[in-house]
Amino acid sequence: MNRKAILPLLLAAVLLAGCARTAVPELVPSGETQAILDLPGLQEDLEALSAVPRSVGSDGEKEAVRYLESRFREMGYDVTLQSYTNAAGETGANVIAVKPCSDPQGDILVFSAHHDSVPNAPGANDNASGAAVLLGVAQALKDVATDTELRFISFTDEENGKLGSRAYTASLSEQERERIIGDIQLDMLGGLGSEGLCLCTMDGSPNYLTELLGPSLPLLAETASDHASFQLARIPAVLLTQQGRGYLYHTAADTPDQIDLARLQQAVDLVSELGRHIASSDTPSFRETAREEAGTYVYRQTRQNVIYFGSSLTDSEAYIGAAGIWDDRWTVEGNGWSDTYETYRYSMNWFGGDAPMNTYYTYRNGYLQSIELRPEETGYTAQQISALLREMYGEPASAGDNRDGVWAEGWADEIYSKYITLTFSEPCAVTVSGYSVGITNVLASYPVEGGQALVTDAQDKRVWDYVCSVLPRDARLKIAEFNLFTDGCSNVLAYTSPVKREDGASDNTRFSLNIDYYDVYDETGAPRDWSKLTYTILHEYGHVLLEDETQIDLALGSDTHDPAGFIPGSFRYGFYDRFWKDLGVTAVGDYEANPTHYVSRYGANYFHEDIADTFAVFVLGAKPDGDTAAEQKLLFFWADPGMTALRQEIRDAIGLD
């Protein structure tokens, strides 16, 4: 099936079966569903909003605020700027445009996006695309008669943890909060390498907004956008976004010419039709439905929801869309040191159970260390929890008396990096902690000769075939080994390394390519986001291409990362000499001061990551026309005829113009 086919633009009135909530009135198309295409207008907004990087507090962000304010005022909206300052003292603004309704106590519907970007990227996809669609929706709805107040909000400081939107929701009065019936967040739309539209809620559960926007769209779980702030404030919310992160996420090549404008128009049409429906005086109020959903919302911790141990209290609560109730605090002291522990109680569904469980997050010095569930506080027995865990994970990896002589069972979730222990004490308890098997956990290994590997397993073969679809045969000749490993989902996706000779020395004429099976497939064998895999394959090939014997003499350096072994006259030597020789081992400090010196934040960690990331962005992005240091690095590749020929060969293989 061609998943890139344009999805239907009409909204559907069919509700998902089995949802126990107040009935949602049937959506009847207004007759204005098919909007007039305004691709030039979208392109103009997209280009204006992504002219320069827009991190919070930057001149670029201030210019984006001025542009948004001007555009909303041109349309006739009442516009205010909500000032914002983060903990680092960086100042920005949320832009709020309002179309009032006749009833001062009427419902409020929020449409939102964020206009900031990461410091090194123009951020056309993330998220000038969403902000441009927000303007398009505002344009489409500016003249509609409405009994619902429409608010269009562009947030600042989303990239540092959705802080601009959290400041906004924290500023709402209780009366305002009660009136807001929902938020539709627009983030990352039409990026190169992504697929069609999809809807997301915090845990992948439907709400009335997802039902109205279209049950034909895929519904996924996602916490990483401003809809999470509304859910945290107990307001129904949905994210409209692209499927997959795309090729150029958070890079210097995230420019307007890499955005599919037709996808943006599709999003404008879809959201505008929903706005018309809710604005119509013929449509009953959704406030009762919204309050019912908000009052009964419980975060559903599925197996696939990654728990980010080590994250801050603010970030943890943004992930789960709930504010905890403070439970306890204590301090542990030693010789010249002290650690402060705090626990917060949350209500969550776990292990597929029907009822929520009291869940206690323990934060050590403000960062998540462990989780404890107390099932009996909400009516579960130890036997019921054991049955749920067995259904999800199978038989326990360990079982027996613990150090206190109490029976305990333990499950190791290697895929999602959790270790779960059920203790049959009185009362019973479940602890959840971080767990990792490391990158040495090889699942399958295949020799590669002449750029070809004989892969017997069908799922493994699909990954190898994908590698071959990205890298031409000549580019695979230095790959001598293809391995599938796992260190769990959402850690290391792939890596390369020189193959060891029999005497134990590294041989940079041959490399192993290692890909994490569970970052490309889930536990059911369903593929994950392979646009990210495309980028990663090119990044890893950048290591092979630029760390082989034509670039590095291992007899002179300690390893492939030692500049002492870089061969004079090689591409690697020239890149290092021009851009890195004065930086030392890492450039993290330089990135903080000069983010536009790097094509990505990851590349600033080490020289070998910077040159490999620059290669991947060079292949996937357009030729830059600016003069930042990152663009000069890309132009360094463009100046090499061999590199440009290789770029075109790869782009032809993956279907890029």
Describe the structure.
The protein has 657 residues and is of the alpha+beta class. The chain is 32% helix and 23% strand. It has 19 helices and 22 strands. The strands form 3 sheets. Strands 9, 10, 11, 12, 13, 14, 15, 16 and 17 form a 9-stranded mixed sheet that branches. It has an 8-stranded mixed sheet with strand order 1-2-4-3-5-8-6-7, sandwiched between helices. A hairpin with a 5-residue loop joins strand 16 and strand 17 (429-434). Helix 3 packs across helix 8 and helix 14 packs across helix 17 (607-620). The protein is globular. It starts with 38 loop residues before the first helix and ends with a helix.
Outline of the structure:
The protein is built from 19 helices and 22 strands. With 657 residues, it is an alpha+beta fold.
List keywords for this structure.
single chain, 657 residues, disordered N terminus, 22 strands, eight-stranded mixed β-sheet
